[in-house]
Design a protein that fits this description.
Keywords: Signal. By secondary structure, the chain is mainly alpha-helical. The protein has helices at about 5-10, 20-35, 40-45, 60-70, 75-85, 90-105.
């Protein structure tokens, strides 16, 4: 099951308390950013130009879009900061998310 298949209805017509939806979204974003962190920083620096939202899988982009509908700019920044400080990250996913976030935020 794709993340957007259950996020879309929750965002469109929340059946949960907004605080619960918010907490779930923060936790989900943190989990996605840290899933399977096999790429090292050196590899990420070498390949970062390939990891943009335009090359991101459609379901992952849709999931990120739904996350960004729920979270404010400061909250996204806080999740990114805490995730980077606490644990290893999946650089491919993180850089794809940042690319989408920055592009979306500047439109």
């Amino acid at each position: 099951m794709c993340c957007t298949s259950f996020l879309s209805p929750l965002v469109a017509t929340p059946i949960l308390d907004l605080a619960v939806l918010h907490a779930f979204t923060v936790e989900m974003l943190s989990c996605v950013l840290t899933y399977n962190p096999v790429i090292k920083v050196v590899q990420a620096i070498a390949n970062h130009h390939q990891w943009t939202y335009s090359r991101c899988s459609p379901w992952l982009c849709q999931t990120f879009e739904k996350v960004l509908e729920v979270l404010k700019t400061e909250e996204v920044r806080d999740v990114l900061q805490k995730t980077l400080q606490r644990q290893d990250v999946n650089w491919h996913i993180l850089l794809s998310f940042v690319s989408l976030y920055v592009t979306r935020d500047t439109k």
